[in-house]
């Protein structure tokens, strides 16, 4: 059986990039795969977090998963720290991971910034914990946005290292699933930068919790260029902001970029932005309403997470036990 694992960090606002690049695709995949969707609170701790906000963020991401259409019965939804096997496996995998592999990870360089010596060991080891998340469940597929491709490749390398070291085909090599028209949603203020939770300008992103007026304002203020929209995809090449907005429109409406340009080629941005706002309101408004209703009942969210953790642990425990045995740890 093909099994999916993926996750989101419960840090700050969930934005359109998280939704279009990842969560929306998960909703489509849940019919064809056994799915495990995690709220990765341990990953969040690789950077400083306010404890109360971290807890609230964990519930909020859970609500977002469900509001977006993930079925908590069919899929497993849980928060990472509830299943301690993640950190146990991460250690065993860390012992197999050469430093050279971690030194190549571009995200660490970005997140650590100039003060590299002050960055935490957890931030450096972050990709190993991510590999453990995936491999603990022997997941075969990992649906993510473009930015995590390198991390999935590392998880494959680590799985291969384990299989070679112990001369058996234990871990499947997980494949990334990166698809849709918005695999890399860019900032609304700068089409060359990724839309990100950590951008200091809130106008760079559309959050899943933004109300209709704010969404309209952010789209109106989104950076564009002076030309009207082109008729072909090729003509979007040197126009990152236009390219980004066309991709967002296509993803929201579930159509191709070509179809968007057939409708809007030759038109100016103001009419395109009006149409984009309508799409954004339609999709996000629905999610926000459902999220608000779910968040009003934290007891229900916690029950979903507890049940999810039980189901996740039932898969994780025997896998971890096998890894421990293969690695030569005595379990008398
Ligand atoms: P995180 O929380 O940064 O992002 C969650 C998901 O959203 C995608 N994403 C984007 N997609 C398109 N455009 C963007 N601008 C954009 N920004 C974010 C990400 O690719 C991701 O799919 N370490 C991971 C979480 C994680 C995980 C895992 C994922 C932990 N363990 C195991 C898969 C498998 C993270 O921080 O994602």
**Structure summary, number of beta strands:** 5
Radius of gyration: 21 Å
Q: CATH-wise, what's the superfamily of the largest domain?
A: HUPs
Reported for the largest beta sheet, the result is: 3 strands, parallel
Can you give the helix content as a percent range? 40-55%
Strand composition percent: 5-15%
What is the CATH topology classification name of the largest domain? Rossmann fold
Order of helices and strands: EHEHHEHHHHEHEHHHHH
Q: Counting H and I runs of at least 4 residues, what is the number of helices?
A: 13
What count of structural domains?
2
Helix/strand structural class:
mainly alpha
How would you write the strand order of the largest sheet? 1-2-3
Tell me what the CATH architecture of the largest domain is.
3-Layer(aba) Sandwich
Mean pLDDT level: 97
CATH class bucket of the largest domain: Alpha Beta
Please describe the topology of this protein:
Layout: E1 3-8, H1 16-29, E2 34-39, H2 41-44, H3 51-68, E3 76-79, H4 85-94, H5 99-103, H6 106-112, H7 121-136, E4 141-143, H8 149-165, E5 175-177, H9 212-221, H10 240-253, H11 257-264, H12 269-295, H13 298-327
Parallel strand pairs: 1-2, 2-3, 4-5
Question: Can you describe what's shown?
Answer:
The chain has 332 residues and is mainly alpha-helical. It has two domains: 3-177 and 297-327, HUPs (Rossmann fold, 3-Layer(aba) Sandwich), CATH 3.40.50; 202-293, Tyrosyl-Transfer RNA Synthetase. It contains 13 helices and five strands. The strands form two sheets. Strands 1-2-3 form a three-stranded parallel β-sheet. The chain is globular. Residues 5-9, 17-18, 21-22, 40, 43, 130, 133-134, 142, 144-145, 147-148, 183-185, 194-195 line the site of tryptophanyl-5'AMP.
